[in-house]
Amino acid sequence: MNYTDSSLISEWNSFVKNDSYNLIQKCLKLAQILEYPELDISKEVEKIKEMGVKFRNRLSESKNPTYTISLLNEFLFDTEGFQGDLDDYYNPKNNFLNYVLDKKSGIPITLCILYTEIAKYVKLNLRIVGFPSHVIVKYEEEMILDPFNRGRLLELEDLQEILYQNYGDSVEFEAEYLNQITNEKIIVRMLRNLKNSYTDSFAYEMAILCNKMILSITPNSSDEIRDMGLLEEKLGNYEDAEKILNRYLEMEPNADDVDFVLEMIKEIRNKINQ
After folding, report:
1. Which of 16, 62, 103, 213 has a 20 to 30 Å separation from 8 between CA atoms?
2. Predicted confidence (pLDDT) per residue in 30-40, tens digit
């Protein structure tokens, strides 16, 4: 497969912008394009539906949300056996819903998607929160839950601890970190996870495909444009890299990494002129 094939991007673009597809279907499409070309999306959707119906049948009557959430935790983490993947957390496949359904373990973002989807079957409106470094779920404004840790109820000090573990003292808790995240941003976040994983394992063509998939959703994202330039340089496409990095500097003349990017452009020009 040619990972920069424009037909793949075109296919992704029309699917992800089609409002008749929901978040689950779009996440599965992402998996199909990147790693599982034979994936039957409707079959995977059916697996989730069967789980949702099974959970609904266990709930004999509509109780209060706290009780329903405790039953949801019991169902997903005890009965169905889902868990956070601590052993292989950075495996890129943890971003693919079909893989998580199969293996019954995943990372915060995929477990939150599954958790909120199953909750819909009992009319429990849980929302996904794009907390920095660790996606979580909330009910109304009163309950913050962590599906990666068996649906544990989080207090403010728990949230501060997550920030401390990932950023040290450099990031302070802010109320806006608990805002609901849109479906579009959830998908972009998954693609960024994947792009980073592929880059770390030197799979630069796959990383570029992820980058292009992000840019089809947010075409004016300067960070993605910069990363595209850096990835093209890794693949030895120096003229493309120089052009893209110059575009980034035009967009962000006062960015923190201007010196780094200018130095990179200088190195690229030296390589072109060799």
Report:
1. 103
2. 999 999 999 99
